[in-house]
């Protein structure tokens, strides 16, 4: 990165110097001060550009890390929510299964009791009928 920056600075300085020399020779004025100023301005501008680019790279890297962190949080939150929902559904299914089992056993006991009750009534009625005929 430093080599690229120095190469860019050198090329910019040479280009500005060449342009400035052409302007000085066509002007006819003694302008070594202008050449120095041009070189200084080019170096300053190159430095500002390098700092600006470095700052932009740093801030975009930080922005990328922040976005990655946020996305990771969102994914972990979604995963936790899904896991919680699955556990809740599992518990509800077990509760409903237990209730269905209780209801089925209650219905079976009620049906058995009604059958026994009907048998007992039939036995009583037949006994009464037999005793009534004596």
Automatic annotation (TrEMBL):
* Region annotation Disordered: where it falls in the sequence: 79-134
Signal peptide positions (record): 1-18
* Residue stretches of biased makeup (Basic and acidic residues): 113-124
Keyword terms, alphabetized:
Signal
Q: Which domain of life is it from?
A: Bacteria
Where is there biased composition of kind Polar residues?
Answer: 125-134
The name on file for this protein is: Uncharacterized protein
